[in-house]
Design goal:
Elements: E1 4-10, E2 15-20, E3 26-29, E4 39-44, E5 49-51, E6 60-64, H1 68-73, E7 83-87, E8 92-93, E9 98-101, E10 108-110, E11 112-118, H2 127-130, E12 134-141, E13 144-145, H3 146-151, H4 156-160, E14 165-172, E15 180-185, E16 193-196, H5 204-212, E17 222-224, E18 232-234, E19 239-244, E20 248-256
Parallel strand pairs: 6-17, 8-14, 9-20
Antiparallel strand pairs: 1-2, 1-5, 2-3, 3-4, 6-7, 10-13, 10-18, 11-12, 11-17, 12-14, 15-16, 15-19, 19-20
Amino acid sequence: MAQRYVRVQDREGRVYYGLLQLSQSVQVLDAPPWLQGQPTDLQLEPDSYRLLAPCAPSKIVAVGKNYTDHAAEMGTPVPHEPLLFLKPPTSVIATDGTIHYPPQSQRVDYEGELALVIGERAFDCVPEQAQAKIWGYTIANDVTARDLQRQDVQWTRAKGFDTFCPLGPWIVRELNPGALLQTFVNDNTQPVQFARIDEMVFPPDFLVSYISQVMTLLPGDVILTGTPFGVGPLHPGDRVVVAIEGIGRLENTITIRQPGRSH
């Protein structure tokens, strides 16, 4: 099994990066792993921590319509260049966290995606340099208020609500280019999304290069690489799972957002 890099919080509220062991204990690192974090003598037992999102990005750069079939289901052609938008860091939650259904929307959709974690500063890279800037891979759900996306000229509101970027459960360093991505809702054993990640229109190294020509990517930043065909609505009480072969499962539940209550 590939090494699983996690970010956790202990009972006293201290946050650590670490390596998840087969026993579910966590070997704590002295820094984020992409900043050359090294193992320490501290080990957290399985019942002494909770998983957080595996990184705390300064920004989340997302790519729209990066699978041909998804562009078609949205009723649009595949873009000639990557279609970029931002999700705020405040939208990030961990696996097992709750997605809050906002009162402004009547249609909230799941969008299972592969996420890239940047390991070193990237500015104006060519694709050959860009691959080395990708430190690892995790899973994301680009939750979207679909009715607001169609209503607004741009997508900031539809994509930017708190809890609209589940991320995790951990990061792996290597991934099969043809790894299978699947999304499941509730107890249905048939996936609502099913694709190989090499079906992307613009592959990861191209995306990192393209984005780096617009903005500087910093260590720990996240790129969402787009969702395949099969997006659909979520309802309060639903459970959504995004699974990527070679990484794991990102699982979240949906609830109505209560006014004034933080997550």
